[in-house]
Prior knowledge:
mainly beta; 56% strand
Amino acid sequence: QVQLVESGGGLVQPGGSLRLSCAASGSIFSINAMGWYRQSPGKQRELVAFMPRTGNTNYAESVKGRFTISRDNAKNTVYLQMNSLKPEDTAVYYCNADIIQTSARYYANYWGQGTQVTVSS
């Protein structure tokens, strides 16, 4: 079974920083794109950032210049460095990845369980 596990969420003051991690584990043959989404109660889940295995990083306009996505393919891990956090960044952050499982031929999409980020004074 393939699993994505997020960590690093928590409480932070406005202007502060957090670094989220998401590690993929299980019977993994290959991982293509990895990314982060977020969702607040009563709101649509929105893309925050994503990164193909090769290629350019992509960011929501609201986080450009503040958040940085990176990945360590050897560790099957994607990170989200979140700087200059604002109260409106408060949400559950979800990891997402396209993964080929061992013994499978095609990519499937996986979600992590989510990690809470709260930005408040």
